[in-house]
Design brief:
It is built from eleven helices and 14 strands. Strand 10 and strand 11 form a beta hairpin.
Amino acid sequence: MPKFKLVAADLDDTLLDDNLQLTGRVKEAIVAVRAAGVQFTISTGRMYRSAVPYARELGLDLPLITYQGALVKNALSGEVLLYRPLPLIFARDIIARIHELGYHLNAYLDDVLYMENDTPEGRRYSQISGIKPELVGDLLKILDRDPTKIVAIAGEPQLDRLNAELAPLYAGKVHIAKSKPFFLEFSHPLATKGHALKTLAGHFGIKREEIMAVGDSYNDLEMLEYAGLGVVVANARDEIKKRAGYVTIAPNGEGVAEALEKFVLGA
């Protein structure tokens, strides 16, 4: 019987290869893990709509952790296990502050991607996510209730300065994290992959020490810390690797297969 009963893996730069595809080795490892009675799920900052095609390619019929942990929703039935949106009062304030800087903004509501303008940053994001945005001009004019999250896109130095400025203002009120060096995400204070993983484990009656999580970035840290074993893929930054229980030899894609083979399948 495998030690681990639940595995959660990030998508971009972790489960997916550089072409945003699932490799044959990864798919075979996940099939073998599930055949051994181990639950496998996706844990991503992506929208639910953006994550579901990969889940269905893998034949997953269980809740997916999406939007950084703000939405946990079944890949097939659509049943919502958890939803924690960003309070509107904070979302509007954050948007107004970022307007002054001129950075690209995304907002998410009802699993729809809203952007203010057609920008190179927006087109790149749309290409990665596979989701066509709704262009709305000023987000403050269309947001009338709590969005799932807000994302600012800019250069990493600019986002690091923004994070340093806003983190003290919203401490305990908003969770702020980078998912990629050029994506700064704002969500409900409990909308983290770690909190979502805890909820999912409780749903299945699985203990913390029976969970393995695999990731690569800053928004994976809470999940890596919560899991019994936190695995970081080889392409991650050194500061993320220092927080890992195990660092794979292989990079994204193959690194997840390596971890599954080593710790779950005993290959």
